[in-house]
Structures are given as C-alpha cells and as structure tokens.
Amino acid sequence: MKKIFTLIAIAMMAIGMQAQTLIDFVKSPTEGITVSGSTEISTVKIHTNTDAVSGIKFANSYKTEETINNNYALISVEGGFKAGDVVKIAGAYNNSSEKESAVDLFTYDGTTATVLFTTQQFINGRLVNDEPVEETYILTADVDKLYLGRNGKTATYITTLKVVRGEEKPSDPTPAIVWNFQQELSANDAANLAADATTWTFDAENGYWKNVVTLTERGVLTALKANDTELDIAKGLSFTRDNSEGLGAERIRIAPAKYLAVNGGSVVISLGFLVKDDVVRLIFKGAGESERSLSLSNAELVSGVLTTSDTEVHAAELKVLKDNVVNITTSNGYQFMAISINDDITSVIQGMKNVNVENGVVYNLAGQKVSKSFKGLVIENGKKIVKK
Fold first, then answer.
1. Is the pLDDT of residue 13 over 60?
2. Is residue 171 part of a domain?
3. Do residues 192 and 141 share a domain?
4. Phi, psi (5° rounding) for residue 52?
5. What's the pTM value of the predicted model, to 2 decimals?
C-alpha cells in the first residue's frame, strides 16, 4: 500500500510541475551550449535576404561516413536531461533549393553516435518568406548530454533551440516600455556623448549627434553606447547592419527632442526577445521622398503602414508572432519618433511638434492615423478630444 501511495504522490508532482526552461538559445545564446569545430554562433538571412537572424551555424557535417568529427554543438545542463524533456528546434539553410539540409539530434559515447531525431522542416531562408517551423522531440530516456550536427549538403542554421522540462505555460506579456525619441536627452546621455569625441560628434548644422566610427561589424548586434555607457534614450534596443561595412560611420543619428534616425538600408533594430501577441507600435517618417519600407522578423503588421515615399509622420501597429526576438530592418533611411511595446504611446503623440499633428491630422489612442469621421476619443492638434 505504501508503494501505491508513493507512486500516486510522484504522479501528482509530475502533473503539477511547472515548466522549467533548461536551454533557450534565443534568450541565452551561450548558456548550456558549446560549439565546436566549424560550428559557430552566426547569422542567417531569412525572408528573401532582408533579415539577419541569429543562429547556430553548422558549416560542415559532424561525421564522415561513420567517423565522428568535432563539427557539432554540445548542449548540457547540470544533472543531465530526463525522459520527458521537450526539445524544440527550428532553422534554415541558406543556399540553392537543390542543397537541402537538416540537423540531427544525437547522443555520443565517444565512439558511436546514436541519432534520436532528424529535423524535417528546415526552410530555405534565402528564397522564402516563411518563418522557420518549430519541430519537437520528447526524450524517451535520461541522457547526460545531447549533440546537434548537420545532416545535409549545405550550411545549416538553428534559429530556435529550446529544451523544456515539465508542462510549458504561455509566457506573460512583456512589461510595457516606450522609447520616446521626442524627449530631451538625459543629463547622463548629454554628458557621455560630449565626452566621447572618438565615437560621436555633434552636427550643429543639422542638429543631431552622429557616430563617426563603425559601431559594429556586419550582423553583430550592439547597444548604442557613448563613453562606454549605454545611452538611456535607446536602452534595451540593439543595432546592426547587414552590409559588408557593418554599422559604419554616420549610420546612427540622434536629434535631441526630435528623433533617432538610421541612415541607409539594411540597418537592423532589434527589440530583443518578445512574447507572442505582444503589441509593438512605431511612430516614424522616411528620411527622404524616395520609396522605402521596413521589413519585420517575427512580427506582422496589424494596422498603419511600413512603406512610405514621403516625409510625413506615420504610425504602425505590429503583433508578435511567437516567443522570440523581433527585428525591424530598413530599406533606406528612417527617423523614429517613438517605439513602444505594449503601450499606446499617447503621450508621445500629444507632445509631438510636427506638421501633421498641428495641421489637424487625427490619431486614435494607439497612435494610428484615422479619418476625420472617426468616432470616439482621439488626439487632434496635440490634444485629446471626443469625436461624436
């Protein structure tokens, strides 16, 4: 009888056990993951060459015939993995359609590799607009360590790698945050920009700070810093450029109380790891009258526009597609007045000093431009009013 009660207790504990994320490449690219040989943390182009997405790159196969080499990623956690742990993988290869590739999940005893699972749905990131498809494998036995290696004919990338123990619950929404570039620089930002003549200079004619050196190489994200300190005005955002020169000189422009601008195409603004159904809002304008657009990674446009061929202020609302990093990539220069996550950015619109607001353009409380026949609480000429 005692044994039966013990089994029941264990079963109840298992049912009630909360999910424990053991490994999450997207949030912690190096925690629990060791890359070896030709394997490295790199980037892959997704969505017809517009997005540079972080991935674990497998440049070569992990075996020649039956001989195992060291071209693999080792994933490990304290105490090893347990039967029932859930492994989630998504990824892409970046070559012609004739060179499809996959990834093997395997165990290795120093002599023999035992394949547990081979991915089936890796996409050709170079040619499609699809999101990488998340595939799932559930461990049937305890193992000390797990290995990942390339199975195929061309370079392969894992863009999602997550190991979860227990029942995974939906994530809580990301706490609300607003990056208001219409506000004055903080005293710290002003002092640090002025002190860092090596990296930044103030263009008095145009009224903005601009970087005078390359901030980061191609595809490598960086926070905006001055005097070795992350700038308050963009804290939490990171930037790169999918271009051979990287995020070169004069690609970032900070106009106090006006905007933060990215100059030129292929500039990536990363909002970091967001949660499915988070709402992202943008207030922006093009930095010129030629047609330009913003492309999205892990988000879709809900309302507003991402393409413009004028220099008027526009608003857009985005919805996050899954728990993962969200990136915005430019096709040309843009000026951002505000970016928010799960916030209506009403206060930013109220304080804006631009011709659209002053000349009677009407916005709803989400920051979206609406027609003058719109009914309800709106912002017109910088003031809240009720339209009946």
1. no
2. no
3. no
4. -100, 105
5. 0.71
CATH of the domain at 29: 2.60.120.260
Given a contact cutoff of 8 angstroms between Cβ atoms, the answer to whether 324 and 273 are in contact is yes
Write b or e for each residue in 146-163: b if 16 or more Cβ atoms lie within 10 A of its Cβ, otherwise e. Answer: bbbbbbbebbbbbbbbbb
Q: How confident is the model at residue 384 (pLDDT cuts 50, 70, 90)?
A: low
DSSP class per residue in 185-229? PPHHHHHHHHH-TTTEEEETTTTEEEE-S--B-TT--B--EETTE
**Checking DSSP bridges between strand 146-152 and strand 113-118, what pairing results, if any?**
unpaired
User: Rounded to 5 degrees, what angle do the CA atoms 177, 324, 224 make?
Assistant: 50
The string of pLDDT tens digits covering residues 153-166 is 889 999 999 999 98
Please spell the DSSP secondary structure of 360-379, one letter per residue.
T-EE-TTS-EE-TT--EEEE
Is the same domain home to 274 and 363?
yes
Percent of the chain scoring above 70 in pLDDT: 85
Counting the structural domains of the chain, the total is 2
Domain identity same for 273 and 357: yes
Structural domain including 203 reads 177-387
Q: Is residue 111 within 8 Å of residue 156, measured between CB atoms?
A: no
Say whether pLDDT at 365 is over 90. no
The Cα–Cα gap between 69 and 249 comes to: 42
Identify the bridge partners of residue 104 per DSSP, sorted by sequence position.
118, 149
Q: Using an 8 Å Cβ cutoff, are 25 and 68 in contact?
A: no
Average pLDDT on 20-35 reads 92
* Nearby residues of 257 by Cβ (< 8 Å), 6 or more positions away: 182, 183, 184
Same domain flag for 251 and 310: yes
Per-residue pLDDT averaged across 275-286, rounded? Answer: 95
Is residue 6 included in any domain, yes or no?
Answer: no
Q: Write the pLDDT tens digit of every residue in 184-232.
A: 999 999 999 999 999 999 999 999 999 999 999 887 889 999 999 999 9
For residue 260, pLDDT beyond 90: yes
Segment 91-99 shows an average pLDDT of 79
> Does residue 170 sit within a domain?
no
